[in-house]
Amino acid sequence: MSTPYAKLPAWADYGLIPLINLFVAFVVAGFVVLLVGENPFRAAVILVEGAFGKGTGIAFTLFYATTFIFTGLSVAVAAHCGLFNIGTEGQAYIAGLGIAIVCLSFDSTLPWWLTFPLAIVAAALVGALWALIPAYLQAKRGSHIVITTIMFNFIAASIMVYLLVGPLKPAASQAPQTRNFLAGAELPKLNWIIELFGAKIRSAPLNISFLLALAMAFLVWLLIWRTKLGYEMRTYGHSPKAARYAGISETRIIITAMMISGALAGMMALNPVMGDQHNVAIDFVSGAGFVGIAVALMGRLHPVGIVLAAILFGMLYQGGAELAFEMPAISRDMIVIIQGLVILFAGALEHMFRPYIQALFASLSPRSVGMEAVKGKGA
Amino acid sequence: MAQAAIELIGINKSFGAVRANRDINLEIVRGTIHGIVGENGAGKSTLMSILYGFYQADSGEVRVGGQPASIKTPNDAIALGIGMVHQHFMLVDNFSVLENIILGAESDALLKKSIVKARSELERLEREYGLEVDPDAIIEELPVGLQQRVEILKALYRGAEILILDEPTGVLTPAEADHLFRILRQLKEQGKTVVLITHKLREIMAITDTVSVMRQGTMVATRETKKTTVEELAELMVGRRVLLRVEKGEADAGGVKLAVKNLTVKDTRGVTMVDDISFDIRAGEIVGIAGVAGNGQSELLEAISGIRRAVSGSVMLDGKPIDLTGAADPGELRDRGLAHVPEDRHHVGLVLAFEENENSILGYHDDPRYLKGPFLNIEAIRNDAKDKIAKYDIRPADCRLKTANFSGGNQQKIVLAREMEQDPGVLIVGQPTRGVDVGAIEFIHKRLIAMRDQGKAVLVVSVELDEIRSLSDRILVMFAGRIVGERGPEATEGELGLLMAGVEHQEAAE
After folding, report:
1. Are the beta carbons of A7 and B358 separated by less than 8 Å?
2. Measured between alpha carbons, how far is A284 from A272 in angstroms, rounded to an integer?
3. Alpha-carbon distance B260 to B297, whole Å?
4. Is the ipTM here above 0.85?
5. Segment A346-377, tens digit of pLDDT
6. Residue A238 and residue B18: Cβ atoms within 8 Å?
7. Which one, A66, A161, B120, B226, has the greatest CB density within 10 A?
8. In the sheet that B67-69 helps form, which strands lie side by side, from edge to edge?
9. Cis before B396? omega within 30
10. CATH code matching the domain that covers B4-238, chosen among 3.30.43.10, 3.50.50.60, 3.40.50.460, 3.40.50.300
11. CATH architecture of A68-315
12. What is the pLDDT of residue B509?
């Protein structure tokens, strides 16, 4: 009775409302495009075609999506335990160090299918350890995880800069990055899958870590809804008091959840580092950790939603790049504005249209015909 | 014919598919005290919220003083002379009485003028209605009884002719409740109209002139209080006969199951909440702890169940000590046969966002019955939940439904089913029937007695004196963190009321 939101059918809740939010975001973005003197419809066409029109576009979209699936899952796992991990960015960045060590050590001796598992473990481990410190401080000292993880982003960035201009840089090089990896640390591309459907791909970085991301999405679902640990995390996330009552150790659950979150963030680094650039360069994460927050929120913290939201953001990245290329009046910053609008309407204003949709459904539902008739009389 | 202060004609209100009010007709006569009773979720609060402008009715008409009224916001209600005293006070804790009273009714940008005006007006009101409160006292330093008086003064200051009180006695001692009733009678004599919403039938009988009964969103009956009985009202509320007093045989108490000795507990601010308490509970008896809320009962329960650290003292479970100073793990205590139904089922006993079946293993999720290695055994959990739903008549019988969508009584049954079905040696229960409807109260009381008859040691903490008296074999009264008396179940309400107010305790101390 006191619930402000009556129930909607699941398809409306998870399908219709996000679509409406997205639509509104694009309408508003259209006005922005109009403002800079371009045709918003043409811009929309370029954006969508850029992302999905050609094989290359699709491959790029999925490449970006891979990154966002990892960071989105990372944010979601922590969020299920009631923790806001803003440190995904830093955890992913520092995980590049773990990957660098593995790849630089083994790329000349091992084949990729041996280097890859080692790199996965190294990336996950370094990411998890980087999350461990803020988690420990939260659990034992009550230092707020949002503050500490933000701080750890800066620390990670500083360490990586130091390493990439110093110890990890080849002596003769001018660029702040490691030497390029050899074939033993290059991940196989997945472009052939898209080519199976008849599309042509010039060159695109979509690689096998996309499959790893999908596997992780499944494992996260399993963890959250099917394991005892996930049950404990959700209990703590919804009500720390209930968790205390149930005998769940606060320290253990915070640290475990954050380390899993950090491990997922760390795995994100595999995609650009081993799948695309084949070296660890400065700022290779470039904000993907923060996009992960939006992806997780938009995906309602559910792995399926996260995969879909990650593909949407992949589309915005890829299509946005095409748009900036095709329409010179639309700069990179415009793309960021459009992405911001999507986050605003799909994330922050998620419930804006809900009451109207509910009223609509209520008036269509047979059970409240009486109410409708009464309304008719009043009018 | 007496003039109607308020008339409600054909009021309908739905929330989604839930019809909270259906076709309600009600006439409240000026200068009377009109009671509205009904179980939780019967639609009482919704109806009053419509009257006070929190909600809009989907259809129907409200008339105030014979004139059709459109009440869109609480301000409209206030302008029409309707005042409301909420169950949870709407006061600013660190403001003075006077500041709270003028809040929202300031007449100027600067406060001075309003305060001077309010002070003289307040003096008049206090004289007229016997509502003495120090205008300069800070709210958080006042006892709840006085805070409630401030709420009433707030309404009167705004010129209320019709006063709605929502469950006003929930937080009061019997003596404070009596005082409130005196005030309400005085208001009535001065020609004010009082609407009293409650689920306590005794209060209805004691003070109202007319009583209306609501059930499942409809107004099922309106009676003259003189011409009805508690039994009739209870039957109207529930729709069937109910047992108001639990029937139980003599206790057959065995050996000591739980021994509490010199227990002292402090709250998070470092204030001593439980002060050197000792008592025993034997197998096969129910020990009730009576007391006004906030006298250390909650902290006592939390310490015994391992949720809160104790400062000193010991608790022996089956003759073996519980490590209280090192924050005993509630999970370990469960393994040792101590089950706990917490006072706050919304935040502690249940996770409202969970499905019913997920809550039916909360705290027992380590039990191998519910697990397959690290995975939850979903099938076993759901089957187990279905068994409990059938056994405890939890409605709706859907173990996949979100717990927040169950009524208070059914939520409490979910917790009770979980804790009782583990067959614990000791069961400690906080506020067994808070926010639970009459029908479920009967069920819960019967279950607790059945536990006792199986030889379990049961500790019940409740602010409902009736409940304590009808369930307990021994009654301990807590006041200011201490046990100030032990009585048998035959103790009178007056006697316990005095103990709860700390009267005897203070006399003894002097």
Report:
1. no
2. 7
3. 14
4. no
5. 777 777 888 788 778 767 765 433 333 333 33
6. no
7. A66
8. B18-29, B4-15, B59-64, B67-69
9. yes
10. 3.40.50.300
11. Orthogonal Bundle (1.10)
12. 45
